[in-house]
Each structure stands twice: as C-alpha cells, then as structure tokens.
C-alpha cells in the first residue's frame, strides 16, 4: 500500500508543480502585458506631446517664413519615444489653397532616420535676376528694403503682358520708402483695384541689415534682394463692402510669440532684439511693402504707381471660380 500511496503522492506533486508553473507563467504573462500596456500608453502620451511640440515648430516656421502661408494638412506616425510626420505647406490665393511643398519631419528622444528628396530649386543666369521655385514649381518672390540703395530693382510689372489672361497673380511690392502701419487704409486705396493680402513689417536685426548691405556692395546687381522667406509680416483680412481693419495690434503680439517658438537661430535673434528694445507700438510700426493678388488687367493699373519701387511675381493660378475678378 505504501508503494501505491507513494505513486499517488508523486502524481499529486507533479500535478501541483505543473499547476504552479502554469500559474507562474500566466502571472508573468499578465505582468508583462500590464507593463506593455502601461509603457505603450506612456509612449503614446509622450509621442503625442512631442508631436504637438514639433507641429508648433513647423507651424512657426511656416508662419514666419512664408507670407500668407499655412499648414494645410499634417499627419504623424508615432514610434518609440519619437516619430515622423508629413505636412503640406500652402498659400491662400483668394480662397483657393495652393500647395507649395510637402515636408517631412522627425521628432522625439529617439527620432527615426528621416530621408527625403526635395525637388524645389531655381537658377541664376549672369546679368539676369535669379529665379527660385517652391517644390511644386511656383515662383518665390523678392523684396527690396526701401532703406537700402540697390544697384538695380526687379520690375516684373514691366513684363505683366507676358502672363496669359484670366490668371490670378501674386505679386510682391516693395515701397519707395517706409510707410506707417496706421496709413494702411490709405495704402490700400492707392493700390486699388488689386487686393492687398499681406504687409511687410520693418523688423530686422542689425546683423541682417549688415549682411544685405554687404551683398549690395560686393555681389552682382541682380544677385540682391530679400527673399520672401526672410521677411516678417502680417496677413490682412479680405475687405468686405469696402471696409477692412488694421490687424497690427493682435497680429504683432502673435508674431513675437511665434518668433519665440521657432527653432531657427535668426528668429530667436530677432525675438531677443524685440524683447530687448521693446515691442514696436502701432504708431511707430512701419510697412516696407505688401503682397497683392490681382488679374493681369488689375496689376497693369499699378504701373508707374509712385509707391512702388520694385515688383516681383510669385504664384500664378487659375481663379477659384470662373469669371472671378479677384
């Protein structure tokens, strides 16, 4: 009987050990699953927070570097403690979104390797103005600072006849001198019938102005100018029933805040200068130029306008609606 009891005891012991192992494995699996879920949730929360910060940086870059520019679409893939994102940069052409470029970005503590190929570019032929393009083929504009004396000024208004009829045209206009922001409504009236959509503010660091002066003194006459990406300004609301308002007070504070959010050193330098010198009050703020939208026939009416020192064509598109004037 003792042998039989021993056999049964061995079976019970083995069964108990087997059950204990199964329970231990299940417990380990449960703990691992709980840890995995917690880590995954934490990673998602961290990823979303990092993604938000990266979007703010991208948004700051677009707002500060592309007049009337905005992010029209943004997508994010979150990985481990980081991720990648894609976004589209667009301009508003009288209600019609025009996609300029598709951008990639990576973010996080362990950002994935991000490889991208850009198709934008341009060319510069001797004795001609340089031409730069956005990735999707639209031209970039040039401005000319009215407080600097250039050897030559770009005058795309003189070539306006070369553009086909029925197109909506974006044009950068540089003034003959700085004008007060408080005179915005007067400026808009003097530039009718085109639609003024953006104003260029006189906000530069001393270092940047010295760089522009050096280029004027040492480079070819047609190798100068201020790229639209190097300008700071405010988008203007479309006029309704002939009435518009000056957005400077609210918009300027937003610009200063956006400069602080930007990751570009030149934006940080300008922010430091503004904070050091004090924000420019509306009665002291100056406009150096504007961006206008109009048809060929409307822009032709700006030829020989005394306010205009230089003009540079940018995006050209078909109107949003057939028969649309602006």
TrEMBL record:
InterPro entries referenced in this protein's UniProt entry, alphabetically: Sigma_reg_C_dom, Sigma_reg_N
Sigma factor regulator C-terminal domain mapped to chain residues: 160-315
Key words, A-Z: Membrane, Transmembrane, Transmembrane helix
Coiled coil regions in record: none
Transmembrane segments: 25-48
Domain of life, source organism: Bacteria
Positions of the Sigma factor regulator N-terminal domain: 14-98
Name of the protein in its database record: Sigma factor regulator N-terminal
Organism: Clostridium cadaveris
Taxonomic lineage: Bacteria, Bacillati, Bacillota, Clostridia, Eubacteriales
């Amino acid at each position: 009987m003792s042998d039989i009891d021993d056999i049964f005891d061995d079976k019970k012991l083995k069964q108990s050990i087997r059950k204990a192992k199964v329970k231990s494995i299940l417990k380990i699996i449960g703990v691992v699953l709980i840890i995995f879920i917690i880590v995954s949730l934490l990673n998602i929360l961290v990823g979303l927070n990092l993604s938000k910060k990266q979007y703010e940086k991208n948004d700051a870059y677009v707002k500060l570097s592309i007049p009337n520019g905005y992010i029209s679409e943004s997508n994010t893939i979150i990985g481990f403690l980081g991720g990648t994102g894609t976004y589209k940069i667009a301009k508003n052409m009288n209600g019609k979104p025009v996609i300029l470029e598709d951008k990639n970005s990576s973010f996080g503590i362990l950002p994935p390797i991000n490889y991208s190929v850009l198709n934008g570019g341009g060319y510069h032929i001797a004795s001609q103005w340089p031409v730069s393009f956005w990735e999707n083929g639209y031209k970039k504009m040039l401005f000319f600072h009215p407080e600097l004396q250039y050897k030559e000024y770009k005058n795309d208004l003189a070539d306006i006849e070369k553009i086909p009829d029925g197109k909506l045209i974006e044009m950068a206009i540089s003034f003959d001198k700085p004008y007060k922001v408080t005179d915005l409504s007067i400026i808009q009236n003097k530039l009718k019938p085109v639609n003024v959509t953006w104003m260029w503010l006189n906000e530069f660091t001393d270092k940047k102005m010295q760089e522009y002066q050096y280029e004027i003194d040492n480079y070819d006459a047609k190798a100068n100018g201020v790229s639209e990406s190097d300008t700071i300004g405010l988008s203007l609301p479309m006029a309704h029933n002939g009435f518009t308002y000056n957005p400077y007070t609210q918009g300027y504070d937003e610009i200063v805040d956006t400069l602080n959010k930007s990751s570009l050193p030149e934006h940080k330098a300008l922010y430091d200068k503004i904070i050091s010198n004090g924000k420019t009050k509306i009665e002291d703020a100056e406009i150096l130029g504007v961006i206008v939208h109009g048809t060929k026939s409307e822009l032709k009416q700006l030829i020989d306008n005394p306010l205009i020192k230089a003009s540079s064509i940018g995006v050209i598109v078909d109107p949003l609606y057939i028969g649309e004037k602006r």
